[in-house]
Amino acid sequence: DQQVKQNSPSLSVQEGRISILNCDYTNSMFDYFLWYKKYPAEGPTFLISISSIKDKNEDGRFTVFLNKSAKHLSLHIVPSQPGDSAVYFCAASATSGTYKYIFGTGTRLKVLA
Amino acid sequence: NAGVTQTPKFQVLKTGQSMTLQCAQDMNHEYMSWYRQDPGMGLRLIHYSVGAGITDQGEVPNGYNVSRSTTEDFPLRLLSAAPSQTSVYFCASSRGTSYDEQYFGPGTRLTVT
Q1: CA torsion angle for A40, A41, A47, A53 (degrees, to 10)?
Q2: Which residue of B has its CA nearest to A51?
Q3: For chain A, how long is the longest CA-to-CA vector?
Q4: B101: which DSSP letter?
Q5: A interface toward B at CB cutoff 8 Å?
Q6: 3-class SS at B5?
Q7: Other beta carbons within 10 Å of B92
Q8: Which of A32, A43, A105 sits opposite B42 (nearest CB)?
Q9: Exposed (0-12), middle (13-18) or buried (19+): which is A46, by Cβ within 10 Å?
Q10: Considering CB atoms only, which of A89, A99, A104 is closest to B50?
């Protein structure tokens, strides 16, 4: 049973436009969410996170939105750049639980120059 | 700091062989984990450890063993390799709370024939 889902396997966006990557979760115990970026032949690297006490967190061109009632989060990248082309994973954790980070299946973003 | 290191980078095994994937971190992190990445499946947690001497199972633990005798090292053992264990394996570490991002190693690509 997939507790964290990224329903779009891939996404193509023009350079300079907004990229929106989506993630849904089913476990209501999750209260901390992270986004990771992965380039080919490298390990994932942390991008941005959000706690369930917030509904938005910004870091430069990256913003994560959390809708707890819908169990949905999204990552916005504005403006998108060719170097943003990578696979993006969302991950979730229950801070009162057993320190497990559960990852989604990933979305491959391609930013077209 | 070298961060999280993994050896080997590539490995080919025959069915039934055993091997150990090595993982080490020099950041004094308490939390370490192993993931496998398969096409369309994202990153799935195999085993994790919240400190030396403490390990627990993740989402897909069958066929793998771990131990954590020191803070720095977290080896993953395949006792009898199967073709279904062909995957890319990532080791990760974090300071120890569920609010911390994980730092990933570069991965080990394993093929079982």
Answers
A1: 100
A2: B99
A3: 44
A4: P
A5: 4, 6, 9, 32, 34, 36, 41-46, 49, 51, 89, 91, 93-95, 97-106
A6: strand
A7: 26
A8: A105
A9: middle
A10: A99
- Residues B43, A44, A75, A55, CA torsion sign: positive
- Using CA coordinates, name the residue in chain B closest to A50: B99
Contact residues on chain A for B48, CB-CB shorter than 8 A: 99-100
Identify which of A43, A51, A94 has the shortest CB distance to residue B105: A43
Residue labelled with tokens 């690297």: A45
pLDDT tens for A41-71 read 999 999 999 999 999 999 999 999 999 999 9
> Mind listing the pLDDT tens digit for each residue in B46-89?
999 999 999 999 989 999 999 999 999 999 999 999 999 999 99
As a whole number of angstroms, the distance between CA A85 and CA A108 comes to: 8
> For residue A84, which phi and psi values (nearest 5 degrees)?
-80, -10
Instruction: Please work out, in degrees rounded to the nearest 5, the angle formed at the alpha carbon of residue B32 by the alpha carbons of A91 and A32.
Output: 30
